[in-house]
Design goal:
The complex is a heterodimer of chains A (about 270) and B (about 110). Chain A has about 270 residues and is mostly helical. Chain A has a single domain, classed as Cytochrome c-like domain (Cytochrome Bc1 Complex, Chain D, domain 2), CATH 1.10.760. Chain A has 11 helices and 7 strands. Chain A has helices at about 5-20, 35-40, 45-55, 100-110, 115-120, 130-140, 155-170, 180-185, 200-210, 225-235, 245-260; strands spanning about 90, 95, 190, 195, 215, 220-225, 270. In chain A, strand 5 (about 215) and strand 6 form a beta hairpin. The radius of gyration of chain A is 19 Å and the shape is globular. Chain B is elongated, with a radius of gyration of 16 Å. Chain B has strands at about 5-10, 15-20, 45-50, 55-60, 70-75, 85-90, 95-100, 105. In chain B, the strands form 2 sheets. In chain B, strands 5-2-1-8 form a 4-stranded mixed sheet, with no helix packed on it. A 4-stranded antiparallel sheet of chain B has the order 4-3-6-7, with no helix packed on it. Chain B has about 110 residues and is mostly beta strands. Chain B has one domain: Immunoglobulins (Immunoglobulin-like), CATH 2.60.40.10. In chain B, strand 6 and strand 7 form a beta hairpin. The chains are: A mainly alpha (about 270), B mainly beta (about 110). The interface of A and B includes residues 12, 46, 50 and 129 of A.
């Protein structure tokens, strides 16, 4: 088959090549910054927002219900600013939940889905069309765009889980005796070409908590914070971090609290 | 059924910058799935951009274009409020048309 290669095709290929080297955080004198800015303007992750919105309002599941009755902490169905205050303590489940675990309990309680089923499919294979949870998490977070991350530790359980998260962040464990802080505790560290985020620095951690869920160029799908953490665990050769587990929520609570004051802007764009 | 595109058409000076995000798998026909079976070729073959119904761009794409592609063209001579339409057809005959109106660049 003859293939006429248009200028546009060439442009798209060039885009791909720059993704490979685009680290997460921007530094001012960074020559990659220009390319990163261009990518952020046309973030394919935006396609997921519409998908998430449809899923949110559609009647789905065995109970044939939408998610409009789901309370993300600011009242049933109120999404503006909800993601900026998560994780938080919820009375009905008597636990601290992040956005994704909250979404899970709503999908189980309101729509009648099986929890195991959702968890199994929550993190989609690379190069797929993405999972429902990924699209929903992005849509819900996008409703807090422009708002300031503001996690409070007003309930004792929130304090407890925050402390647990801090402990996990600093604790060396696993076969490689690795802690999060070893990669993310210093400025200007990198693995091969990838800059590592300096997460004990306010600006560094703010850049993280305000940009997930994000479109991951390498995998062509939108990824969430739960995925980021479980992938970190895999990279550290730790036992699998279970989706929406207490450990993952603890780390999320710790990081989000550290990132308080960040202005949410999703979808982010990661390499 | 194909998912909607996201189209922006912003007028800067006398040039409209049209940017399109398309959701498409763009399979190269060379990738194997988990079972080792080749994933069949599936890519956007033809793209047409129209300005008030008149074709201003017609392109033949190849499987070299990335998944979920971003596509941009510039157009001279359009005014604010003009209709910009984008249509793609892939090699399986699936297609999608979306429209937007030219807006001023802020």
């Amino acid at each position: 088959m003859p293939v006429a290669r248009s200028d546009i095709a060439v442009l798209a290929v060039v885009c791909l090549a720059t993704w490979g080297a685009a680290p997460v955080l921007a530094q001012s004198a960074d020559p990659l910054e220009v390319g990163r800015k261009m990518l952020a303007e046309d973030n394919p992750g935006e396609l997921w927002i519409e998908r998430g919105k449809t899923l949110f309002y559609q009647k789905r599941g065995p109970k044939d219900a939408s998610l409009e009755q789901c309370d993300f902490g600011l009242g049933s169905g109120k999404l503006e600013g909800a993601a900026a205050r998560l994780p938080r303590y919820f009375h009905d489940t008597d636990s601290v939940q992040d956005l994704e675990s909250r979404l899970l309990s709503c999908m189980v309680r309101l729509q009648g889905f099986s929890r195991d089923d959702i968890v199994k499919r929550a993190i989609s294979p690379a190069g797929s069309n993405g999972s429902d949870v990924e699209a929903l998490a992005l849509y819900i977070t996008s409703r807090s765009n422009g708002m300031t991350m503001n996690i409070s530790l007003s309930h004792q359980k929130e304090v407890d889980i925050y402390k647990a998260g801090e402990y996990l962040f600093y604790r060396r464990s696993g076969q490689t005796d690795f802690a999060c802080v070893q990669c993310h505790g210093e400025a200007s560290k990198r693995i091969r070409l990838q800059d590592l985020v300096h997460m004990t620095d306010k600006k560094g951690v703010q850049g993280v908590v305000s940009t997930w869920p994000a479109y991951r160029g390498m995998q062509f799908v939108v990824r969430t914070m739960q995925w980021r953490l479980s992938d970190c665990f895999w990279q550290m050769r730790l036992p699998e971090l279970k989706y929406a587990s207490d450990a993952s929520i603890a780390l999320t609570t710790y990081l989000h609290y550290q990132g308080n004051g960040a202005v949410i802007k999703v979808p982010g764009f990661k390499r | 059924m194909a998912e909607p595109m996201k189209i922006r058409a912003l007028l800067k000076g006398d040039v409209v910058d049209i940017r399109v995000l398309i959701a498409h798998p763009m399979e190269t026909g060379q990738r194997k799935d988990a079972a080792g079976v080749i994933v069949p070729l599936h890519f956007i073959q033809n793209v047409v951009v129209t300005h008030n119904g008149k074709t201003v761009y017609e392109g033949q794409w190849s499987q070299a274009v990335s998944r979920n592609p971003v596509f941009a063209v510039r157009l001279r001579g359009a005014k604010i409020g003009d209709k910009i339409g984008v249509t793609w057809v892939d090699n399986k005959g699936d297609q999608r048309t979306d429209e937007t109106v030219v807006a001023p660049a802020s």
